[in-house]
Amino acid sequence: MQFSLAGAAVAVLDVPEPERKVRRSRALASDWRGLRITAVGEAVPPARPARPPRPELLPPNRVKKRKIGPGTAGRIALLHALAHIELNAVDLAWDIVARFTDEDLPRDFYDDWVRVADEEAKHFDLLAQRLAALEAAYGDLPAHDGLWQAAEATADDLLARLAVVPLVLEARGLDVTPAMIGKLREAGDPDSAAVLQVIYEEEIGHVAIGRRWFHWLCERRGLAPLPTWQALVRERFRGPLKPPFNEPARSKAGLAADFYAPLAAD
What we know:
Strand content: under 5%
Shape: globular
């Protein structure tokens, strides 16, 4: 039986258990690359992906922040928070695959976002392994639901989704990850630092993918990318863009400073 990519993506979104979601994501990516699935098809993604009963989801301002210091508590809190981000990123990638099939997008679009989903699943797995090495697990601490709120705010428009998720949220990861890598090394945890280095390097590619398809869709719609992106971010993203920015990494992803710097000034 020939399954569609969109239908299989929705099936991943409907999986609540993180480990099974990761396995299904990686298997689906392999099937797409190996041409065992070739049809994009159509499907209706859920408004929210399935989630396990733990962690407890709290408003962002109620999630306790811990500094990396002596002992493992701070490192566990950091790795747990990052694992939560990566699990959301898995679902965000499959959601963009399934939600916007009415746009008549080229196969290259799906190749790129299947790659993103596969790499985000790998990132979660790497972080889960580090948590296990520290005698912890995903779900042990509370987390916040801010990432999926961005998905809900852009569910009606692919251009808005591209503007906010890869070009604001993932770009923010490029700004903050190098400092986290340095703190983990200072804390004597080179293994966790190495995991974050892998994530950091691959997230540059994810921002580049978002930039590529944002510009492509702007051209299709006859829109100028820079003012269109700034207008969408002002309309659809809560809060300001926070400097300092990692300009070398953003530039490597093709994200020019004249895009985001004016919004930081706002």
